[in-house]
Design a protein that fits this description.
Keywords: Membrane, Transmembrane, Transmembrane helix. There is one protein chain. It contains 12 helices and 11 strands. It is α+β, with helices and mostly antiparallel strands and about 350 residues long. It has one domain. The strands form 2 sheets. Strands 1, 2, 5, 6, 7, 10 and 11 form a 7-stranded mixed sheet that branches. Strands 3, 4, 8 and 9 form a 4-stranded antiparallel sheet that branches. The chain is globular, with a radius of gyration of 27 Å.
């Protein structure tokens, strides 16, 4: 069955692909998977190895989602006291990662910290120094700025040091997308609290030198011990003071060629504009909301979206047959007409009344 996808149609290639950045050796990550740490010795001893790792990681966009959820409160009186419980009515996730690049492993644009901007250049505070000289750049095996900074990091004699690679998303109009999503929720006559969030993982890769203290700071149970005992209040300032930071390179991933509301000519999205994206998923989102779907750990997929569209087409065809009385049986046509009218009245009553109230 053919389903009209326009406007806002995109190729199946852009719909289905999602590849997270590859795992690194000797690595772990924080609770939200925002920061990934590695203490692989080669990254601290071989500038070519470090540079190649950064270039490879830059080919993968940060994992980017939008979450749409709705909650309401139910209050019960127990033992002469009111007890309120928050009920989740729906929780839906959509993957936005494929909208940040034109294809698999096409990557973002690398940016090196410019000389006229303060940053962590191997110290414990942001500064303009040291900057790269022509001799620094020419001494590297590839003759580029990234190679020069990798060489500076490896040559730094400090035992406690780290090199940070950041992924950054720009030009995504989150406020407009949130408005469009809330409008879909409102169209279902939902009366609870709607929430829109944009969780992002794989934001940073942090290379730590292979020191025992860096091994401890990456060990989950040790980190939790410091959190729970509040020893982090004392340990974090010490770690900040003894760790040399190199935060000089980032990869930029553009949702569009410029921010919303700027420029005279039309803004061009990398893959889909915010309006096109919502049009693409609108029927599936409305169906998931009304179906009280809760998917906190997985995303709505293309199969579900197509299934919803096919069901809508089938319902439209069935309704057309009923209106035309094409069953060939007068009694059956009359019965179906009565049932359809009753179903419509019930639906209109429920829609007018709304759902998801606080009680």
């Amino acid at each position: 069955m053919d389903i009209d996808e326009s406007p806002g149609s995109i190729s199946i290639f852009h719909i289905y692909w999602y590849i997270p950045p590859p795992d690194l050796p000797f690595s772990s990550h924080d609770y939200s998977s925002s920061d990934f740490w590695t203490r692989f010795p080669n990254y601290s001893t071989d500038p070519d190895n470090l540079r190649q790792m950064i270039l490879e990681q830059a080919q993968y966009a940060p994992t980017y989602h939008v979450e749409l959820s709705g909650t309401h409160k139910e209050t019960e009186r127990r033992h002469k006291k009111d007890s309120a419980e928050t009920i989740t009515d729906f929780h839906i996730r959509l993957n936005l990662t494929h909208l940040l690049t034109t294809g698999i492993r096409t990557g973002g644009k690398l940016e090196i910290l410019p000389d006229n901007q303060k940053g962590y250049r191997g110290g414990i505070i942001k500064s303009f120094e040291p900057s790269l000289s022509n001799s620094d750049i020419e001494s590297g095996s590839t003759g580029d700025e990234l190679q020069a900074w990798c060489h500076k990091f490896v040559s730094d004699p400090s035992k406690m040091k780290c090199f940070i690679f950041e992924r950054k998303i720009i030009n995504h109009d989150k406020s407009h997308l949130e408005y469009l999503l809330r409008r879909i929720v409102t169209s279902t006559n939902y009366r609870g609290q709607a929430h829109v969030n944009f969780p992002t993982s794989h934001k940073r890769v942090i290379v730590y030198s292979p020191h025992i203290i860096n091994e401890w700071r990456m060990t989950p149970w040790i980190r939790w011990f410091f959190y729970l005992t509040f020893l982090w209040v004392f340990s974090w300032p010490i770690l900040l003071l003894i760790t040399r930071r190199y935060e000089v390179v980032k990869a930029i991933y553009e949702y569009a060629d410029r921010p919303a509301g700027t420029g005279v000519s039309a803004r061009k999205a990398t893959v889909q504009s915010e309006d096109e994206f919502v049009h693409h998923w609108e029927a599936a989102l409305r169906s998931a909301i009304l179906g009280r779907m809760i998917k906190k750990d997985s995303c709505l997929d293309e199969d579900y979206r197509v299934q919803v569209l096919q069901e809508e087409v089938a319902r439209g065809q069935a309704a057309a047959h009923v209106l035309q009385g094409t069953t060939g049986n007068a009694f059956a046509d009359g019965a179906i007409g009565v049932m359809t009218a009753a179903t419509t009245l019930v639906g209109e009553f429920n829609e007018a009344r709304g759902w998801g109230y606080d009680t």
